[in-house]
Amino acid sequence: MNWEDFDQGHADLRRQGNWRSFVPTTVGADGFLQRNGRQLLNVASNDYLGLRCAFDQQWLNAATAQLAEVDECPMTGAGASRLVVGHDFFLEQLEARFAAFKGKDRVLFFASGYAANVGMLSSLISRGDTVFADKYIHASLYDGIHLSRAKLHRYEHLALDQLDSLLKNIPTGRGRRWIITDAVFSMDGTIAPMKELVDLAEQYGAQLIVDEAHAGGLFGTNGEGLVHELGLQKRVAVIMGTFSKAYGAYGAYVAADGPVIDQMIQQARSLIYSTGLPNVLWASVALQWERVRTERWRAKQVMDVAGHFAMKLLSNGISLGQWGTSIHGLSHATTPIVPVLVGSNEQSLNFSDRLRELGVSAIAIRPPTVPEGMARIRFSWSAAHTLEQAADVASKVKQVFDEMN
Ligand SMILES: Cc1ncc(COP(=O)(O)O)c(C=O)c1O
């Protein structure tokens, strides 16, 4: 077989510093990981609350006990799509309880955040609709918009004035208008101006969709999310989030009014044409959710650590891009994600290599995940880390900056 065109494309990617590959990694509960035989501080995972390793024998017993009542073989696959026979009472009840938590009529779980966004947007948005989206929304939202075939207008990151003018000047056709935003932006650690977005949506008759992947578990009195912390849950049409980040589990949810959920059940192909997740996974979500609600010190810890790190860097004149463009009235005006802007792909790879030599695992993020020329090191902190570790990594970042400039 001839794969010359692939080989050529791969050679180009390597030349551009854009080649991607897997590195076997063992991640521990203590905020460290093992890679290539070395122990490194893990500032690269989205396990913000440090809950991923909350798995022990006691946990396993609790999960099994929860499931034994509804399923004879709870630990393996669901056996069918949820619309066939892959949906049982445990899942039915968990969704209902989670809907109450999110302050919405109903909730629909999906296999992953990616599947949720693609299924949600392609089923709710139609060809004649108009979508207004922050330029930095997640790739899965772009893919969902693309599948919907609606017309897309992007506004600069957090640029409310531009959004206002687009909403004012772009004529409303017969279709719906939608505004789509992340609550916390994954590569920038910025926070969406939620109240203003809700006001604009109401002023211009648009429906607001919020992706809380990096806000769920962190914001809100009980970890409900950013929308909830600001008391906006009744005014946001659709709230999506994942269990794969702060919850330290897997899967995702979409919370909305009943007809919106029904529309997804009828039309979301990533739900309909895919086997339901094994119940052991939903049991893990239920248990992790309990820890999210009851161990609120974790959210405070990770925010304190990330804030400490960011302040140290800023005081050393290091650019964090738009980080810190936060909104007021939040319990913590920071996020666990702190980007250090480096520039070219090559520089960012060298930066991350040098940090690794100094015992820190932080990943270089390159285009197309971020705009061309804005490659960066994305630091994502966890509740397992300490203020001392944050200060130590900040001084290592300063050292690498000085070496490279
Ligand atoms: C904002 C956002 N939405 C959705 C997703 C997809 O979630 P999952 O990893 O559960 O598929 C991600 C994951 O990186 C994300 O950052």
Taken as a percent bin, the fraction of beta residues is 15-25%
| Average pLDDT number | 94
Known CATH architecture of the largest domain: 3-Layer(aba) Sandwich
Order of helices and strands: HEEEHHEHEHEHEHEHEEHHHHEHEEEH
> Nearest-angstrom radius of gyration?
21 Å
Q: Which strand order spans the largest sheet, edge to edge or round the barrel?
A: 4-10-9-8-7-5-6
User: How many beta-strand elements?
Assistant: 14
The portion of residues assigned to helices is: 40-55%
CATH H-level homologous superfamily name of the largest domain = Type I PLP-dependent aspartate aminotransferase-like (Major domain)
- What is the overall number of helices? 14
Structural class: alpha/beta
Could you give the distance between the termini?
47 Å
**Poorly predicted regions:** none
Largest sheet: 7 strands, mixed
Write down the overall geometry: globular
What is the CATH class of the largest domain? Answer: Alpha Beta
Write down the CATH topology of the largest domain: Aspartate Aminotransferase, domain 2
Short characterization:
This protein has 405 residues and is an alpha/beta fold. It has helices spanning 4-15, 57-68, 89-102, 113-124, 139-148, 160-169, 194-203, 226-229, 258-267, 269-272, 279-294, 297-315, 345-357, 387-404; strands spanning 25-27, 32-35, 38-42, 106-110, 130-134, 151-155, 177-182, 206-211, 238-242, 252-256, 337-343, 360-361, 363-365, 375-380. The longest helix has 19 residues, at 297-315.
